[in-house]
Amino acid sequence: MKKYTNIFLGTAFSSSSPKDVQILKDNLFFINTEGMIEKVVAPEDADYQPLLDAYSGDENFHRLAEGQYFLPGFIDLHVHAPQWAQAGTALDIPLYDWLNTYTFPIESKFADVAFAKNVYHDIVSALLANGTTTALYFATVHKEASLVLAEICAEKGQRGLVGKVVMDNPEQTPDYYRDADAQTAIADTEEFILAVKELATRTKQGVYPVVTPRFIPSCTDEALKGLGELAAKYDTYVQSHCSESDWEHGYVQERFRKNDAFALHDFGLLRAKSVMAHCNFLDDQDADLFAETGTAVCHCPISNAYFANSVIPIARLLAKGVEIGLGSDISGGFSPSLFDNVRQAVMSSRMLEDGVNTALPAAERGVPNSRITINEAFYLATAGGGESVSLPIGRLAENYAWDVQIIDTTFATAKLPLYDANEDLHDIFQKIMYLARPENICEVWVQGEKVHTR
Ligand code: GUN
Ligand code: FE
User: Fold this and answer.
1) N or C: which end of the chain has fewer CB within 10 A?
2) What does the alpha-carbon distance between residue 130 and residue 34 come to, in Å, rounded to a whole number?
3) DSSP 8-state class, residue 295
């Protein structure tokens, strides 16, 4: 009898396509020593009963209790870890002013490694408790503190993709918070890449370095060029903010006479492993360039309500075949929960479709065909995120990592409204997506290891 590290029995929900959620009722999941799902067996399969008989007495056999369900762990494609220190505050002014008044001052404090450690421990734990098993992080300009964030992810068992932020443009950054110059920024980024790669050799779930120009305004051409070269040299991930707001989009058009997408591409920053946050102002050519280069869009629906002056036409981008995932954008977005962002993604898309200005006739108010479904928003938070970072995560299927959140719909203070013993499983899925709270997440696993218990 083959030995598995863990075997799980229960009902799971997993995206089979952007529009479809597959319901794996009472399936068996066999997890190997690498933390990968080696085999999934359904009750209708011939070997189901023999396997159940053989393994159900095993000490590593886990049967979900009544009212519990597996969801894939969420993949948060855009988190500013240092901004956790100001989450839920400072949402009252436009992007440019917000950066200068609140955000650069708080990020500059991460020169202090002890302060950084404190905040980074909390944000990684908070994200795990909210079901986020993989996170793509912006740290700060500080090389040491950025490495601390990668180490904390490694230690807590979260799959962390971490970037030391580059911002060297004296015209768009304050004296107290900036890389010394382009060469220093590039040299520090290279050292950071090497240090994270070394850490990765000791980290089961993976940690990855990310080349991270903050956004075009905060970087000189020399820095952008050097970072593009580093990304190619080490075949790393790349992240930045792209065409986010009227101001930022306009700034780039003025500086380069083109949109962010083409400007970033000129510097070698649009690659298969690139993830660009926001992208609200992408036009059709920009979107085609994203699709051609394999660059992913990270949709940050809560943050966009505050800083993007727009709702991204996500349905149009999905139809074009652009890879898209979901991001909290802490602290432009206040919530560490991708459940909250899934909900906002659906609600924002409905408001875009119908329009909101009642001074206009109903037929002229909105943008037709803009809505996305809860299934599509779930896809963005899971399988779409996995595709965006080209890793076998975000689905509960063979050859994917065992990254899961176990949802308990019966928890006393957060009981979901389920009153029919034979309730349709897709309705249960929808109730979980709309109503689940962190208390309903009773366990979180990453790469076959339990990393959070309620
Ligand atoms: N653009 C440049 N930096 C930031 C940031 O920290 N948050 C958001 N939302 N946009 C940015
Ligand atoms: Fe951001």
Assistant:
1) N
2) 24
3) P
Ligand 2 ion: Cβ-proximal residues, 5 Å cutoff: 329
Ligand 1 atom nearest to CA at 241? 1
**pTM flag (> 0.90):** yes
Of ligand 1's listed atoms, the one at least distance from the Cα of 303 is 9
DSSP 230-244: HHHHHT-EEEEEES-
Cα 432 to Cα 339, 345, 424, distances in angstroms: 9, 16, 13
Nearest ligand to the CA atom of 244: 1
Residue 161 has pLDDT above 90, yes or no: yes
User: What's the Cα-to-Cα distance from 384 to each of 317, 396, 399, rounded to whole Å?
Assistant: 13, 13, 16
Among 103, 106, 172, 239, the mutation site with the greatest number of ligand 1 atoms within 8 A of its Cβ is: 103
* CA of 217, closest atom in ligand 1: 2
Confidence of residue 445 (pLDDT cuts 50, 70, 90): very high
d(CA 207, CA 425) in angstroms, rounded, equals: 35
For the stretch 184-231, pLDDT in tens is 999 999 999 999 999 999 999 999 999 999 999 999 999 999 999 999
Q: Which two tokens stand for residue 434?
A: 């709309």
Contact residues for 198 (Cβ-Cβ < 8 A; gap 6+): none
Q: What share of the chain has pLDDT > 70, as a percent? A: 100
| Cβ neighbour number for residue 40 with a 10 Å cutoff | 19
Q: Which residues line ligand 1 (CB under 6 A)?
A: 80, 95, 99, 103, 214-215, 241, 244, 303, 307, 329, 332
Distances (CA, A) of 172 to 162, 187, 246, 291: 23, 21, 16, 30
Task: Tell me the average pLDDT of the chain.
Answer: 97
Residue 224 φ then ψ, to 5°: -60, -40
Distance CA 121, CA 286 (A): 37
Calculate mean pLDDT across residues 345-357: 97
Enter the tokens of residue 145: 């503190």
Of 327, 303, 174, 155, the closest CA to residue 239 belongs to 327
